[in-house]
Amino acid sequence: MEKESLSVSIPTSLYKKIEEVIKGTDIPSVSSYVAKVLREKLAQEETAGEAFSKEDEEKVKERLKALGYLD
Amino acid sequence: MIHPHGGRLTERVLWGDRRKEALDRVKTLPVLKIPAESVSDVENIATGVFSPLEGFMGKADFRNVLNEMRLQNDLPWTIPIVLDAGREEAARFQEGKDIVLQNESGRPVAILHLEEKYEFDCDELAEKVFLTMDRAHPGVAKVAGMKEVLLAGAIDVLEISPTPFDRYKLAPKETRILFREKGWKTVVAFQTRNTPHIGHEYVQKTAMTFTDGIFVNPVIGRKKKGDFKDEVILASYDELIKHYYLKERAVMAILQMEMRYAGPREAIHHAIVRKNFGCTHIIIGRDHAGVGSYYHPYAAQDIFEEFPDLGIVPLFFRAFYYCRKCQSVVNEKICPHPPSEQIQFSGTKIRDLLVNGQVPPPELMRPEVAKIIMQFENPFIE
């Protein structure tokens, strides 16, 4: 299966700098490097809520107590 | 608290009126009987262990997981979570309609909202996931026995099946609340399918030095011949924690999931699952999730390089051994002494001693742990 991808422009100077950085590493291409850095950055910006309802929380805590996980 | 994979815990277990209504409806639906391993997958999807999955993978996700080790939306995912059926069987089911999934004893466990049916190449699946097509590999053998059609779609669970180990069974929602109540901000996960020897304990305690708590998470379910039985693993860890861990720093709960023995790919899968349980770190040792000599001993560590966006931090450990000269547990990075001074934590050696009724030396295994194991008439899977 062909990997789906799009082109994004970066300055030529930056491209050349990345080429130097990845020389002799396992990173096969500038595109791979850029994708890796972007994924890292996006993961840091990941936001999510973890809202359990009060009722849910109480039920869970009761079970945890009954099983001996909580005092 | 660390976010679940994909940002939200999946919850697809039906309760109250919705469950009652669904139970009435299942009587009219076509039935597919599924094996115990698929029941585990169903429950792991529904309780959020496999978040963000809401059901069995469609073709686009399946292809992407095989080729890119990511879901269509770019989230890391390395193991296809799929449900197979025979061609004739699958022909009875219509896309866009519901199917009831029954366990082996005929009890309805879930409703599958069938979105898609597709065929797949089992050789390709084996080669990409297990990096081999050798049928002696237990994962490849399992794939070779899969039926031709994959059924995809969201599921709703009607009932979580009871197990003999329910006292140890926690869902991600529960562990997340538990860790928060304990005040743990950092939690290291330890995946296991073995009884603990001193090397395991050393790795865990080293990791615990840097985190607030440890989540010991034995995998319960189909294993291979010669592995320790589930009840033996749990009893031995209970004993180890009771005698050698701070109660407020250690939690053990089971993970009912099939071991696929997919080495590096499975290490990533294990990390995702533990992230969903609320762990911030995971211990990855030598030959994690490997079998035989199919994978390089540290391939399961190297693969993490490809996933800078995983979210959970892997803690890599080299193999530990006991050094007579150092008089402690060490590894090749910190011990300068020759192999003649080393006592390896060999599972096979420990097993042989136990089988012959001999207590392993205390450098290899805690006597309390050995005693518990020896109380079982046959601690191994036959």
Commentary on this structure:
The complex is a heterodimer of chains A (71) and B (382). By secondary structure, chain A is an all-alpha fold. Chain A has 3 helices and no strands. The longest helix of chain A has 15 residues, at 30-44. Chain A is elongated and about 60 Å long. In chain B, helix 8 (198-208) links the parallel strand 8 (187-192) and strand 9 (213-220). Helices cover 33% and strands 18% of the residues of chain B. Chain B has 2 domains: 5-157, Sulfate adenylyltransferase (Roll), CATH 3.10.400; 166-374, Rossmann fold, CATH 3.40.50.620. The two termini of chain B are 41 Å apart. The model of chain B has no long low-confidence stretch (mean pLDDT 94). The chains are: A mainly alpha (71), B alpha/beta (382). Chains A and B meet through helix 2 and helix 3 of A and helix 3 and helix 7 of B.
Summing up helix and strand content along with how strands pair, one would put the structural category of chain B as alpha/beta
Q: How big is the Rg of chain B?
A: 21 Å
Q: What oligomeric state best describes the polypeptide chains here?
A: heterodimer
How many strands appear in the DSSP assignment of chain A?
0
Q: Roughly how much helix do the residues of chain B carry, as a percent range?
A: 25-40%
Number of helices of chain B: 13
- N to C succession of SSEs of chain B: HEHEHEHEEEHHEHEHEHEEHEHEEEEHH
Distance between the ends of chain B = 41 Å
| CATH architecture descriptor name of the largest domain in chain B | 3-Layer(aba) Sandwich
CATH topology tier name of the largest domain in chain B:
Rossmann fold
Shape of chain B: globular
CATH superfamily of the largest domain in chain B: HUPs
| Residue fraction in strands of chain B | 15-25%
Largest interface: A-B, 24 and 26 residues
Task: Specify Rg of chain A, calculated over alpha carbons.
Answer: 23 Å
Strand content of chain A: under 5%
Number of domains of chain B: 2
Distance between the termini of chain A: 53 Å
Please provide the ordered H/E string of secondary-structure elements of chain A: HHH
Q: Residue-averaged pLDDT of chain A, rounded?
A: 87
